[in-house]
Amino acid sequence: MASELIDAAEPQTESIATRQAYGDALVALGESYPEVVALDADLAVSTQSMKFGKQFPERFFNIGAAEANMMSISCGLAATGKVPYASTFAIFASSRSYDQVRLGIAHNGLKVRIGASHGGVSLGEDGASHQMIEDIALMRAMPKMQVIVPADYNQAYTAVIESYERFDGPMYMRFGRPKTPAVYDEIPETLGTGVDVLREGKDISIFTCGHMVWRGLEAAETLEREDGVEAEVVNVSVIKPIDSQSVLSSLAKTGVAVTAEEHRVVGGLGDAIRQVAAEQHPVPVFALGMQDEFGVSGTAEACMEHFGLTASGIADLAREALLKKPIVQHPPIHGGPWT
Amino acid sequence: MAHLKPVPDPTPEPPSKAGGKPSIAELERYATVLRIHCVRMVAVAKAGHLDSSLSAADIVAALYYRVLRHDPPKPRWPERDRFVLSKGHGAPIQYAALAEHGYFPADDLMGLRQIGSHLQGHPDMTRTPGIEVSTGSLGQGLSMSVGICLALRLDGLDETAQVFTLMSDGDCQEGQSWEGAMSAAHFDLPNLTAIVDYNHLQTDGTTEEVMDTGDVRAKFESFGWDAVEIDGHDMGAIVESLERSRTLGRPAAIICQTKKGRGVSFMEDRFGFHGKPPSQEQAEQALEELEATYEQQTKALGGGS
To answer: Which residues of chain B approach chain A closer than 8 Å at the C-beta?
Structure first.
């Protein structure tokens, strides 16, 4: 059944940050569900949770610059029947308060939503101390934690609504700071399984998430135009638990893949895909992302370019991958369609 | 359990006067009962923090037998008072109190820390009835309690249900505890009581040697709390200060000066037992001493149990 809140939402066609969707959808949830509460750690204007705070001051708690406290308070709220949305920058939501999220929220399987904004190097000018590039790895490793990285405003809106209406258990949602182009024309009815083929192709799979999705689509166009390559672009918004069947379908079709994420190449989307491939359909999977390095200061776009997190970066890696694509294709090891 | 000398069933009769509250002397005897359980549990498990459980026995007995408004058949009763064991390593003492109140069968106690038992090394809300939140990583319990208080406020229950959090010296060394203290005062919580089981001993030595927490009472006061300091083995003072904390309308801290291993002569106030289970010999001696205390308390109460 489609969500009334999703049906009622206004899609955005201009470039707009995913964190804006967090704020907007949170207000919509607040209007419909009295048990929804929001917390922030002195970044409510940046994370957009202030929209909820203005509308529902009695259900909004600004904890100040004390993220660990915020996560444990969220545990207490959830254990007493509320559904807390706790937001701060990704860096503080993951590494700074990992133990509090782990014991208080994940271990207990509580329905707490961590709204982690400003993920990745596109946070920009604040630099390495604020650019979180290993949160997906940390949160994937945490038992019971679900990890969601929406691609644009419209999908982010759906993710927030479904985080209440459809998903149970603990969840980490990553949003971004800069404006990002629309990938979806409408507010999608659902995240579905979280693996969404945006463009079909037979030569190579490009698995992407978050801010890299529109870049992946651009890379696919370049590859078609310049190389005659038909690349399949897959948006993975639910990184954990990953829909391995859908990943496998694409791998089985193309036989080679690149992944692209605004994150370390360790433990994130790249490794999630490699895990599926290694166990069930061993084909080459090349990861684009941050190497063994920290971020730097610069504008969002300059930072992305500095680390090669661009459409041309994806296209180049895809060309390299195609050279290593096995000539003979084997069927998947376990299940999965063989096309 | 075969290696342990059998002990008489320590369960005394329920509070003597029907509907009445147990007296101070009765509470003292209940504390002995809980201590006996702890020795047996930790000895059988061959793991666990016995001395940390014993230092808190009087506080926990006062809470469960007299102060807490709770209904064991309905552990999720919305209006109940909450008890959060921030010093999660003291789990045996809470398990003993929960079992004595029928949250689960007393036989379960002997499964402490063993595969297949719901009694984990540290309290686990997903497994054990009567546990409000999982704890065990020091410093988090006070913050969790703040969250519970905020939820109770939204439910209009903040003048009904009191939240009691039992902390340790180690908890006071964790910076997060002071984040919790700060936020409790900021949110003007009328129903939060922090109890510090200040037993002055931790894993590596005395609290003063390892990391002196300074004047804990003054610290709570400076954050805007009401704070008192009492003898944490003086049952009258414990009950009085717990009951008083309900009436203040603001966060209340009770710093309890306690002795680790209280009730067992060779453990009391002695370094070296933290997280170390007693040997069979030690357990038997401890049980002998506690049984003697129990008999004595029973006699003083004027009759058999």
So the answer is: 78, 124-126, 132-137, 139-140, 143-152, 154-155, 176, 179-180, 182-183, 186-187
In a domain, residue A185? The reply is: no
Name the residue with tokens 């359990």. B1
- The order of strands in the sheet holding A83-89 is A60-62, A36-40, A83-89, A113-117, A171-174, A146-148, A238-240
Query: Token pair 């957009």 is at which residue?
Result: A48
Per-residue pLDDT of chain A (339 residues; tens, 9 = 90+): 579 999 999 999 999 999 999 999 999 999 999 999 999 999 999 999 999 999 999 999 999 999 999 999 999 999 999 999 999 999 999 999 999 999 999 999 999 999 999 999 999 999 999 999 999 999 999 999 999 999 999 999 999 999 999 999 999 999 999 999 999 999 999 999 999 999 999 999 999 999 999 999 999 999 999 999 999 999 999 999 999 999 999 999 999 999 999 999 999 999 999 999 999 999 999 999 999 999 999 999 999 999 999 999 999 999 999 999 988 777 777 655 544
Contact B145 A76 (CB under 8 A): yes
CB A38 within 8 A of CB A84: yes
What's the domain range around A113? Answer: 4-174
- B interface mutation test: which of A69, A77, A85, A108 has the most B CBs within 10 A? A69
Rg (alpha carbons) of chain A, rounded to whole number: 19
Pick from A37, A58, A70, A73 the residue to mutate for testing the B interface (most B CBs within 10 Å): A73
Residues A165 and A201 occupy one common structural domain? no
User: Given CA atoms A307, A311, A312, A313 in this order, what sign does their dihedral have?
Assistant: positive
**ipTM of the assembly?**
0.94
Q: How many CA atoms lie within 13 A of A268 on its CB side?
A: 30
Q: Phi then psi for B58, rounded to 5 degrees?
A: -70, -40
| Domain edge (last residue) among A141, A174, A207 | A174
Q: What is the CATH number of the domain that holds B80?
A: 3.40.50.970
SS3 A37: strand
Structural domain total, chain A: 2
β-strands A204-208, A231-236: how paired? parallel
**Residues of chain A positioned with their CB less than 8 A from the CB of B183:** 63-64, 66, 69, 73
d(CA A139, CA B58): 41
Query: Using the beta-carbon criterion (under 8 Å), do A99 and B137 form an inter-chain contact?
Result: yes
What is the C-alpha to C-alpha distance for residues B290 and A311, in angstroms, rounded to an integer? Answer: 74
Same domain, A144 and A102: yes
Structural domain includes residue A225:
yes
Any domain includes A215? yes
